[in-house]
Amino acid sequence: MAKLSGKTVAVLATDGVEQIELTEPVKALKGEGATVEIVSLKAGAIQGFEHLTPGEQINVDVALDQADARRYDALVLPGGVANPDLLRADKAAVNFVEAFFADDRPVAAICHAPWLLVEAGVVEGRSLTGYNSIRTDLSNAGGKVEDRAVVIDGNLITSRNPDDIPAFNAAIIKALGGQA
Questions:
Q1: Which among 60, 111, 170, 177 would be 20 to 30 A from 34, CA to CA?
Q2: CA of 82: how far to CAs of 7, 47, 88, in Å?
Q3: Residue 85: closest CA among 131, 36, 45
Q4: Confidence (pLDDT) at 91
C-alpha cells in the first residue's frame, strides 16, 4: 500500500508559477499514493514558467472560490516571482493559507512562496527559509531565517529554490505520514 494513500494535498498556484516547483512535488506526492489537486484563482489552466521563460500550461483542478481548505490534509505553495505575488494580493488565497495554520496542518512553501506566509501573518517567531531575495521580508515579518535546503518548524516546511526540491519533497512526504 502506498505511504500516503487516503491523503489529499492542495497545491495553491496561479500564473507565473515556477513550473518545476509545482510539478516535482506533485509527482512525488502522487508517487506515494496521495491525491493532489491544483487550486488556483481561476478555473482552466495556469501558465508555468522556467525562471523567466514561459513553460507549460498547467491544468487547474479546483478554482479557489470552489475550494474548501478543510478537505485537504496539507498545502503546497510553489514559488516563482509572479505566482506568490499575485496570490498574496488575493484575500481568498490568503484565507485559504490561514485555514491550514488554524488547524495545524502541514504547509510547505518553496522559493518566493513564503511571501504568501508573510501576508497570512504566520511567520512571526517561526524558523524558515526562502529565496535569497525575500529573506529580508521574512526577517522583517518576525521570522528566524535560515540558509538551509529545508527548514521544518512544526507544521511549516520551507525551502530556498529548485535545487532543494528533493529535500522539500521528502519533508512533505514525512509530514504526511510517510517515511521519505
A1: 111
A2: 29, 11, 10
A3: 131
A4: 98
> Do the beta carbons of residue 55 and residue 49 sit within 8 Å?
yes
pTM: 0.97
* Alpha carbon 140 to its chain's center: 21
CA pair distance 147, 180, nearest whole angstrom: 22
Q: Is residue 96 within a helix (H) or strand (E), and if so which, with residue range?
A: helix 91-102
Burial of 98 (0-12, 13-18, 19+ CB in 10 A): middle
Calpha distance 50→21 (Å, rounded)? 10
Report, as residue numbers or ranges, the catalytic residues.
111-112
- Other CB atoms within 10 A of residue 136 CB: 10
C-alpha cell at 129: 527559509
Dihedrals phi, psi of 110, to nearest 5 degrees: -125, 150
Output DSSP code: residue 106: -
Q: List the grid coordinates of 172.
A: 512533505
In degrees and rounded to multiples of 5, residue 31 shows phi and psi of: -65, -25
Cα distance between residue 174 and residue 75, in whole Å: 14
Longest dimension (CA), the chain: 44
Name the pairing type of β-strands 35-40 and 8-12. parallel
